């Protein structure tokens, strides 16, 4: 397991635009326009 690679569970590494949006309490991951619907 290489620390520079994302976990197998993660679909892709979070981009600078996705990360604050997904971690924001008033903007959940499912409400992020930049994230694809899972």
Describe it.
16% of the residues lie in helices and 0% in strands. The model has no long low-confidence stretch (mean pLDDT 57). The protein is elongated and about 35 Å long. With 38 residues, the protein is mainly alpha-helical. It contains 1 helix and no strands.
In short:
With 38 residues, this protein is an all-alpha fold. The chain has one helix at 18-23. The relative contact order is 0.18.
Write the layout of secondary structure elements.
Blueprint: H1 18-23
Could you tell me how far the N terminus lies from the C terminus, measured between alpha carbons in angstroms? 25 Å
DSSP helix count? 1
Low-pLDDT residue intervals, each spanning 5 or more residues: none
Binned strand content: under 5%
User: Which H/E pattern describes the elements?
Assistant: H
SS-based structural class? mainly alpha
Mean pLDDT: 57
Radius of gyration: 11 Å
Biased composition (Polar residues): 21-38
Region (Disordered): 1-38
What are the salient characteristics of this protein?
38 residues, mainly alpha, 1 helix, elongated
């Amino acid at each position: 397991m290489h620390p520079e690679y994302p976990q197998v569970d993660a679909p892709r590494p979070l981009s600078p635009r996705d990360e604050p949006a997904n971690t924001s309490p008033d903007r959940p991951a499912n409400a992020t326009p930049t994230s694809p619907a899972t």
